[in-house]
Design brief:
mainly alpha, Growth Hormone, Chain: A, transmembrane transporter activity, MFS_dom, MFS, MFS_trans_sf
Length: about 500
């Protein structure tokens, strides 16, 4: 019996150790991999469906948002300034009123996600701001534009936190940087396309049906938005634990829930109470990422394409404009092209090495160099143009920080949603004051009197230190259990 027992124990030992030998080390993930190494065909098909629905809709929504957010700059240099007799810093004020709408609306829109499903709320917001943009084509005074821009910002405030929330609810930590980068791609695409559209409208539609080309821009932007609203009503999902969407089977929905649970992100649906709010307000993420976003926005890099547009428009040869109106709108769009390259490179580095501090540091240093060149303002047009293009490294910071926030909050949906909303509001708030005081249009493009670029350099340095040194330290302390992450949400 002892022999049989020993033989049985030996067989059991072989049976328990054999699978471990077969598993081997996990394959390394290369920068070109879109999925986790070793992902099954079913897993790849599921991720493809998530990308086809979630990324398509959120990217188009963000594309339309930035198309409608930046169109006033293209309209300004294409006849609106002269037709409405705009002067001084009124273009700054158009941005300021828009930003005030965002500041007020972002936290409110985030809270609305607790009462209204994203698949209804986000398309409704898109439709509302698109109608306001359409109304801008009839504006005859700057006061009318101020009012419309404020309410446009108020309605657009739901696009960014709502889209972040949806993306963060469905993707793994190792997948989210690439997807967030694609999401931000669409914002750059919106800025670029606005310039191309205005250039084409100025050439082909100026004066058609008695409307100036800049008025046609607002009409066309509205028409582009309508299909996105319809698409959202059809394919936009809610959270994995909410009601199943039509393009996903019940088995796939359960698999999505398991994917999140595997990473400690077994999130429950929204249910607010006083105890929950206290836990959110005492979490480190709420303050650390709001500060990171604020430091980034204080550099005012979001206005780079506007600054370059005004610089191109100011260039003269023998007292005449060096570039036509079409080229004034088209040339600065290259800032977006270089921004896309920075986004791709930084996303692949972040996902491949699971390190977001390194690419943020590199991008910050590139932006720092560019601002130094713009501060010196050399008498060399090509060098200045290169500095503007390099400064587009700023574009890649937003997807890295937002993806970092999503993965850091884990399955704490309430913490993630509230932090995203406050982060965006605070960012717009500080950027509104900074662009108004340090980068007034009346001082463009050099901003010598206000020392705008010197101001930007200081905040770039602060942002690099905070994101590349402080945030990784907070992450290590969190992993060791020394920091609160919103409690057991």
């Amino acid at each position: 019996m002892a022999a049989n027992k020993n033989q049985s124990d030996s067989e059991q030992s072989v049976m328990t150790t054999e699978p471990l030998a077969v598993q081997g080390p996990k394959p390394a993930r290369r920068w070109w991999h879109w999925h986790e190494p070793g992902a099954s065909k079913e897993e790849k098909w599921l991720i493809f469906k998530l990308d086809a629905a979630i990324l398509t809709y959120t990217c188009l929504t963000f594309f339309v948002k930035y198309l409608d957010q930046t169109n006033v700059t293209n309209a300004y240099v294409s006849g609106m300034k002269e037709d409405l007799d705009l002067h001084g810093n009124q273009l700054n004020w158009l941005t300021t009123y828009f930003n005030i709408g965002i500041i007020i609306g972002a936290p409110f829109s985030t809270l609305m996600l607790t009462f209204v499903k994203p698949r209804w709320w986000l398309p409704a917001c898109t439709m509302a701001w698109s109608l306001l943009v359409l109304g801008m084509h009839k504006a005859e005074t700057i006061k009318t534009l101020y009012i419309l821009r404020f309410f446009t910002g108020l309605c657009e405030s739901g696009a960014m936190p709502g889209s972040f929330y949806i993306i963060g609810s469905w993707y793994r930590k190792s997948e989210i940087s690439r997807r967030t980068t694609l999401f931000w791609f669409s914002s750059v695409g919106g800025q670029m396309l606005s310039g191309y559209i205005q250039a084409g409208l100025y050439r082909n539609m100026n004066g058609r049906l008695g409307l100036a080309a800049w008025r046609w821009l607002f009409i066309l932007d509205f028409l582009i938005s309508v299909p996105v609203v319809i698409l959202g009503l059809i394919i936009c999902p809610d959270e994995p634990k909410a009601k199943k969407v039509w393009w996903m089977s019940e088995e796939e929905r359960q698999r999505c829930i398991e994917r999140m649970a595997d990473e400690g992100r077994d999130a429950e649906l929204f249910h607010w109470d006083r105890r929950l709010i206290k836990r959110v307000l005492t979490s480190w993420q709420l303050y650390a990422f709001c500060l990171a976003w604020a430091f980034m926005e204080l550099t005012c890099g979001v206005n780079l394409q506007r600054w370059m547009t005004l610089w191109i428009k100011s260039l003269r040869v023998d007292g005449k404009p060096k570039y036509s109106t079409e080229k004034v709108n088209a040339i600065p769009t290259a800032v977006g092209c270089t921004g896309l390259v920075w986004m791709l490179l930084s996303a692949f580095i972040a996902d491949s090495y699971q390190n977001r501090a390194l690419p943020i540091c590199i991008l910050g240093c590139v932006q720092l160099f560019s601002y130094i060149v713009l501060l010196v303002w050399p008498d060399n047009e090509s060098f200045l143009m290169a500095a503007y293009y390099l400064a587009s490294a700023y574009s890649a910071l937003s997807p890295l920080i937002s993806a970092w926030l999503n993965s850091s909050c884990g399955g704490k949906n309430q913490l993630r949603a509230l932090t995203t909303g406050l982060m965006i509001s605070i960012g717009y708030a500080v950027e509104t004051v900074a662009q108004q005081e340090m980068f007034p249009i009346s001082q463009a493009p050099e901003f010598k009197q206000t020392h705008g670029y010197a101001f930007g350099i200081a905040w770039i340095a602060v942002m690099i230190i905070w994101c590349s040194v402080c945030l990784p330290v907070f992450e290590r302390y969190r992993s060791a259990g020394h920091l609160k992450s919103g409690g057991e949400l």
